[in-house]
Write a structure and sequence with these properties.
This protein is α+β, with helices and mostly antiparallel strands and 130 residues long. It contains two helices and eight strands, in the order ααββββββββ.
Amino acid sequence: MTVLRPTLTLLTLTLPILALLAACGAPRGAPLSPPAQDAANQPPRMVLLYRDTLTVTRTDGSLCTGASGKTAATAGWSGQMGGCLQPPGYRVAPGAAPRGKPRLQLQRSTDTAAPVSLSLPDQTTLFYGP
């Protein structure tokens, strides 16, 4: 009986602490929205166009990239970006890639003829130009 006494004392002290910690968790039934999903449907923090790559920095800091692949960068390119969760689709118009500079920081535009467009997962299309 004396051997079990320290074990029982430890259990009687530990169980209330564990119950208290379990009660401090997230509220039950509340949907948790991952930050990546929120960032995927918000306008990016920065859009950079290189000679053969388009990069998008999201509001959560994640980076998405879209390379021209085998097509010539001067011919334009499009596809699904990679390197991030819920990647957007993109389109780069022919001749939009910078030639004299290593990169071009793009600004959001309301012009639907802008040289770069992003299609977010929520089906919103955003346009970007120099």
